[in-house]
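Data card: per-record layout.
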Amino acid sequence: MIKLLHVVAIGALVSSAFYAYTIKYETTLEAEQVQKIRMKIHRERDAIAVLKAEWQFLNRPDRLQALAERHLDLQPFSVTQVVRMSDVPIRGPKVDAIGRKLEDLGLGLPTETPRDRKPSATTPGGRP
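The structure for this 128-residue chain is written out next.
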């Protein structure tokens, strides 16, 4: 009986050591993965910082002004281009092309919703 108890105790000891080793190995693996992800985040943040710096460099007003003068044929603003507000044409009404097509097909009529219906005696909750 004692030999059997010793064998069970040794088996439990070996299995618990194996379980502890497995947990330690998985923890080490997860820690390495966390470190890799942190390094990747750091590299991405550095890349974003470089891109922001490039964007600021490319959008300098003096550079944009030089590009506009070189590539765009802009004319100086003249007084004749100024008009009164009353001279500006009024925008026409918005046209709903889909709604117009539905009306042409006879489908533009309003539909009856359950809220619009009057309760009748045959519907649940209706009062006679």
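Known properties of this structure: Residues 2-58 form the longest helix (57 residues). The CA atoms of residues 7 and 126 lie 79 Å apart.

See the next section for split statistics.
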